[in-house]
Each structure stands twice: as structure tokens, then as C-alpha cells.
Design goal:
- By secondary structure, the protein is an alpha+beta fold.
- It has 5 domains: about 20-145, Chitobiase, domain 2; about 170-430, no CATH class; about 550-640, no CATH class; about 680-805, Galactose-binding domain-like (Jelly Rolls), CATH 2.60.120.260; about 825-954, Galactose-binding domain-like (Jelly Rolls).
- The strands form 8 sheets. Strands 4-3-5-7-6-9 form a 6-stranded mixed sheet. The chain has a 6-stranded parallel sheet with strand order 10-17-16-15-14-13. Strands 27, 30, 31, 33, 34 and 36 form a 6-stranded antiparallel sheet that branches.
- A hairpin with a 2-residue loop joins β11 and β12 (about 205).
- α7 crosses α10 (about 290-305), α15 packs antiparallel against α17 and α19 (about 555-560) runs parallel beside α23.
- The protein is globular, with a radius of gyration of 31 Å.
- It starts with a helix and ends with a strand.
- The relative contact order is 0.06.
- The structure holds zinc ion.
- Zinc ion binds near residues 219, 258 and 260.
Length: about 950
Amino acid sequence: MKRLFFLLAASAFSLSAADFSLLKNGSPQAVIVAPESVSKTVDIFNAEFQKSSGTELKKTAETPTDGNVIEIKVIPSKYFDRSRFSITFPSQNRMRIEGTETSVRFALNYILEQMGVRYPFPGPFGGHYPKITDFSLPRKAVARDAGFRLFRNMYAENEDWERALNNIPQDSYELVNHGIAELFPIQEFGQEKWKDSVWGVIDGQRKKPIAPDFVWEPCYTSKVTEDEAVRRIYEILEKNPERHTIALTHNDGFNQFCTCENCAKLDSKESEVAGKLKKYPQRLRKNNSESYFTWVNNVVKRVLEKYPDTYFGVSAYTETLLPPGFKLNDHVMVNVCTESYAHTDPSVRGFWEDLIREWSQKAAMTGCWEYGYGLTAFTLPRVNFKETDRFIKFLAENKGAVCFTEGFPSFGDGPKRYLYLRYFYHPQLDVRAELDDWYRACVGKEAAPYLKQYYDFWDDFWRNKATKTAWFNESKFSTYTAMVPDGGYLFALEKGDMAKLRALMEKVVVNADRSGDENQKKRAAALMKEFEFYEASAYMNAAEWIGINGLTDKKSALEVANAIPKILEYAQKRPVIAREILNIFPKEAWGGTYPYMRKNYEEKFTKTVFPEVLSELSAWFDDPEVKKVYESKTAAANVPESWRKTMKFLLDLNAGTIPNLVPDPSFEAGRGKWIAMGNVSPKYAKSGKQSFEFIMPRSEKGEMVLRVPMKAHKKYFLSAKVYLDAEYPPDRAFAQGCIHGINKHNVGSNYYIPVRTKLVPGKWNSISTTAAVGDADGKGDIYIFILGMEKGEKVYVDDVVFVEFDDGEKPAESVSRQPEAAFSGWVISDMEMRKESARYVKVETDKVTLAAKEKPFTYFSPKPVLVKNGDKVKISFKVSGKGSAGFGFLAYEGTGWKQVDGNVIQPLTLKNEPETVSVVLPVNGEGIGSVRPVFNLGKESEMTISSYQLTLEK
Ligand SMILES: [Zn+2]
């Protein structure tokens, strides 16, 4: 007995000799000796250590003579090596951490990871802390460094979470974003004295740089441009000794590169790489890499002479997508903008991989600006583990030094964002093992297998099913796939998918509740809540009943008709769930650090909208069986009155009981009174024997117009079918309908922005719009606009419907009035453009500068100004600029978002010299409860507005 005890004790001793103990029976076994510079980092570690162990490791400045000591040594390093750390065991009771002020945190993270601490999500219930009483580290030396060593970061992400996963939150403008604006501020370089030396030559003339400052390009072959860049970078580095990176990425205008003799000479060379990439259908824009990268190399060489530990970011993007014929300085990193999900298509992957390979021959460092959007852009959880894994490993193996992801933080994408952050530090990670580990930490061992099955389904869905939809195939060759909530990817869902997924998620919740800890239960509930959002999105769009190519057969039409109660139920449910998500989820962990993201989500999803799929179904009302099911299901539906009216309207429209105000809507008797280039043609017909073959009178935008009767203060509905040849390149052509009343002064009686519909080649596309026409004087025009096509190209138009439309929306009482202040809260109406507001809008204290490029846009205040019929709105401001614009207000029912008759928009002619505008505009419309002030800016126009005032006059 005695002998046995001795043996046990000996083996226990030999174990402890091999391992370095930090915790035993719940008591701390080591102290930490750390310099002051990392004292806070040690505190963060201790707070996390305590959540698992219930205790802390004492922090001292003096090294004690006995007991285990964790000694932290902060060592200087080159900037590039700042993520490197090592852990060694120099003597029996000594553990030594060596690292920089940055990487000491990563070494301590390493210890927490060995304890089993994980961070599946950011925020108050994001971490996983197993309860432990004993913990030791094997006495094995560890040396680590980041995979992407120069810069790794995720757009809008919680910074604590980024640090917990070994990343370094950093402003993208310090390396990977557009940098010319910082180096060449236009307040300075807009001055005449720089005209002949810095301003670029556009259309044969030196072009003055005007606001906003990220649009123009200086002349890159000018010695002065080089000198000024060097001078300014010296200044920045002198003032900010902690800064080691400079963004040299060119500006973001359209065809703004200088064409002076020297620039043109360099850029006239045919790019060798362009030839190699011709086999891919990507559209390569004009190539200015020779002049631009010559400048980059010259500037970098001179800066390095004085500041040798500096790195420079440039982007393979638009005019500089292709590498030049020479090598870049070793301190230049080239960032490629691409979305790994689209690489699921071998041809897309081929293009980007070939491009990155070409770049890695010319640059010492590469990187990526990746697009990992989830909620707000996609209403199903978008995970693509396999492709992301392949892409990040590929980049790391091809000189990757930077990884950056743009996206919207949310819970529903599960492990996606966690994985990105893990990859940034450790690109060679084993994705399957990482995922298994994440599932267990996130919801507990018992629930994990079900959560794994759930995300495996989505990984397969996006990889093997969504890639067969028109949505994917139309946009896969763009910089990123089309970001559309409720988009065509939904139709890749199959019957029963959502029920199967719900069963899995219910098992996740039950098992987490039964055997998980408090955080695991909360996370399971949060994941379930977002699943319900996706579930509602699928059902309200009839995704399971509509085939991958749309509503193309009678069987699906009947199924959709039978599913009407479910469609209506979920269309009403989703905004409720969306609001619950806003209330339940911690702000710091969901919706991102940029408040506008959360707002964007709120605007998109918390309002109730009529399910559009029912309008699509109306195309099948010719079939008596479909019609009968529709009639019985809609009659029984429990829905708002306005929906009921819309549902009945669709039926009446089809039955022909609402008179179509377009004579000969399918062009059987000829072209009628349409003003448009082209004529009737038998080549295609949606109904009857022919359609109208429309010829683009000019590039970009062409229109067909018809004068029709319109009554004052009525609402109208316009729809048409548009066919594009199957061979036409996808993702280029769009169409929109527009209804424009004309008042007794012979000017427009209404203003609104109709939606654009992308034209899918090889099929009849439906376009539609509704509008209230204000005080139209018995007449107006209907327009069918075709956008994005070239002069002389053709599309086919058929089955034009224009009818009066009553959706039963009642006007609200107008309420008391209030004045409105200047530009706080104003936004761009186009959601896609709003994401990149900084490109188009620059707000200063009392003024705003707007710049439209390829696309016109509307800038408005979401805050309603309360008015009533008969009020007068006085608007005054100062304005300067160039191009075309308009201003005024949009009219709404109550204080909501339902537009009503009474919009007033005045045209503005923009001039260089500031002008004062002051007008009184009438509030004219029974239904108006509020107005929202607005500015419209035409394509390639710019304006600066100051001293804006809006007041009410009696
Ligand atoms: Zn030039």
C-alpha cells in the first residue's frame, strides 16, 4: 500500500515536471511579470481567464524568487513582424512570452485557447468559457506569426472580437482604401497654380479638380505630382510616428486618368496580361497601369530613403486592374477586389487566380478586399466554406500579406465571420476541424451535430443549387454577385427544405437548453430567431414552390396559388421578426460598428410590403384552374384592406374589367402613337403575332413614350413585357416604366423614382410601376426606358398595360407643423449607392457636396416635415456646380413612407459661381401629411449646397 502510494506520487511529480501549471484545484499557480506597456493587455487576459477558472493570475512588477512565473518581454520589431510572438520555458518554473505590444495579446490569446476559451460571436453572450479547475501548458516552445502579416481586418466588425481572434482593427484608409484624396486635398490642389503641373488632361484640357475629392486623378507622369506626394507623405509620417502604412490607391472616378502626352505615351502600350486574360468574359476597363505604377515606384523609392519601415497599398481595380510591364517596389502591396463565393464558377475562379498569379510576378505582396455580405443583401444565410477556404489559401500561397472583408455583421451567417477572422491569422487552418470546434463551442456538444447539418445544407445550397439560378449567372463576372434581398437565389430552394431546416434548428435549441451553458442557450435562441427571418423570407416569396427558372409551368402556378395563405401569413410575419431581431440582439455584436448598417436593415425589413410574387402569379390567370384557386384563397385571407384591394385589382386587370388605356397593347395593328425609334416586328411576340422592335437612339438610355389620359389625383399602374436577345451579355441592360402626369401649365404634375428591372437575356421580362399623378390635367405620358445598352441595339416590347389603380390606402390626418434644419440625417435613396455614400456625398458643417458619376441619384431627408394641404414651403440655399439637378420635396401620407400626390421638383441649372435660390413651393394634395426635402443630381454632375433652409409659411 505504502509502495503504491509512493509510485503514484512519483508519477504525479513527473507529470508536473513536464507541464507548466497555471491553475490547480481552482487556485492560481503562477504570477505574471509584465512591463507597464502591456499591463492593460494582461488585465484583459485575466478577466477572460477568470470567466473559466474563477480566479486571476497575480500581476507583479518584481520577479518573485519561487513559484511559477510568466515573464513577458516586449521586444522591438519591424512593422511587418509586429504579430510575431514566442513562448519558451527557459527554466523549471519560468515561462517566457516574447512579443511586441501588439502580439503579447496574441500570446495570451493562445493560452486562453489552450484552456478551451472560444469566441463564436462578438458581444456579451458571444464567448465560450468552459469551467476548469486545473490547467497547465506543456513545456514546449511555441513560435507564431500571422498568415496575413501586413493588414487583416473586417469591415465594421466589433474591435474586441477582432483582437480576441488575433486581428488588428485598423482604418482601411491607412492602407487599402483610396489614398489620393489624403495626399492631394483639393482645397490645395484645386488652385490655379497647380494647373499645368498637377491637374490631369481630360478631353485635351487641364481639368480643375472639384469636389468631392475622391473623383479626380492628378497627372501621374508629372515630376511635381511625385514631389508633392513625397512631401505630403513625409509630413504624415513625421506627425504620426506610429504610422507605417500609406494608401496610394488611386481615386474612384470614371475615366479621370490624365491623357497628357507623357501619360498617353506610357498608357498606349498594349498590356501583355490583357492578352492572356482575353479568354475570360470579364470586361477590362481602360488600362492606365503604366503611368500610375511608374509614379508609385518613384514615390515609394524616395519615401523609403527617409522612412525605410513603411509599406504602401495599391489596388488592382478598374483602370489599374492589370499589372504593368515592370516590377513594383518590394514595399508595395497590391490588393485585389473580388468575392470568393463567385469563384464557385470555374471560369470566374480562373480569371481571378490568373490575375493574382500575374500580380505575384510583379509585386512582393498581394492582398484582397473580399465581399462577404450576409443579411441586408441576402435573405438566406450565405455561407460558402469550401470556396472561401480555397481562395484564402490560394492568396496566402501567392504572396498574400493582406486580407480584408467587407460585409454586414449578423448572427444568421453562423461561423462565417468567425472563420474569416481565424483565417486572417492562420490561413492554413483545417476548415472542417475549425467548424466542428465552432459548433461545439457555440451551442454545446449535444446540439452541435444538428447545427453542423444546418450549415452543411446552406454550404451545399449556395455551392450547388444557387449557382444554377439566373441571379448567379447574371452577376458572377462582376466584382461581386448582385446584392439583392429576396433575390433569385431563393428559387434554388426545394419543397420541404424549410421544414427540414426548422426541425434541425429546433433540435439545436432543445439540446442547447438541455445541456448547454447560459451563453450557449442564448446563442441557440439567437440563431433560431434569425432562422425564422429566413424562413419567413422563403415562404413570403413562395421560394419552395417556384422552380429555379421562375414561375414557368402551370403546376408551380397552382402550387403558389394554393400556398397563398402561407405567403400572406409570412409576408405579415417577417417585419415582426425583423423588429424582434433589432430588440433582442446586442447592438455591439450585431449590425456592426457603423450605425447606418443597422438603420439600413431597419428600413429594408421592418416595414410590411405586399408580396410581389402574387403579381407574378397574375400572369397565370388565363388558366381557369389557377384563377379559381387564387379567387378562393384570396377571398378567405386575413389581410390588411389595401392588400385585399391589390389582390382584387390583379384579378380585375386580368379579366379586362379595368379598361387598358393603351390602345392595341400588343402592337398587332402597328406602332400606334408611340414616339420611339423602331417599328413592329414578327421576330418575337409575347402575345399575338408581333411586338415592337425598339432601337436605342443613343447609348445608355433610350425611351418609348405614349400620351395617355390621366385624371387628377388618381393612382395608375403601368406594366410591360420586354425581351432581350439570348446572346446579349447579361448584367448590362435594364428597363423601367415611368408614369408622368401633365398639369394645366403643361409641366410635370408628379415626380418619383421608379424601380429598374434587370433584363435577363433570352426571356420576356416583366416591368411595372405605380404612381399617383397629382394635379394632372386629364393627360400624361407613359415611358418605357431601356438603360445600359448601346446606340443601335434592339429590344422587344409587348403587352403594355396602363390602368387606373386603387390600392385602398387612405390619407392620414395632417398634424402640427415644425421647421426643418440642414443636412443631418440626409441620405441617398438608392440603397446600393448609400452603402458607399462617401463616394458621392460629403457633408460639412453647413454644406454638402454631391457628386454623381455613371448613375444619377436622389439625396433626401428621411425626417418628415409635417404639413397639410394648402401650406407653403419656403426653400432657400446657395448652390454651385456643374451638370443637371433638381430640388423640392416628396409628399407622403401621414408621417410614413407611403407616397401621395403632391411631389414638387424644380429643375436647377448648375454653374461654377455660387447662386442663391429662394422659392416658395405649394403643398397641394388632399392626402399629404408630410413632405421630405430632396435634391436630384443628374449623371456626371456635381453640386455644393450651403445655407439650406426649409420653413413653412402660412
Ligand atoms: Zn499626365
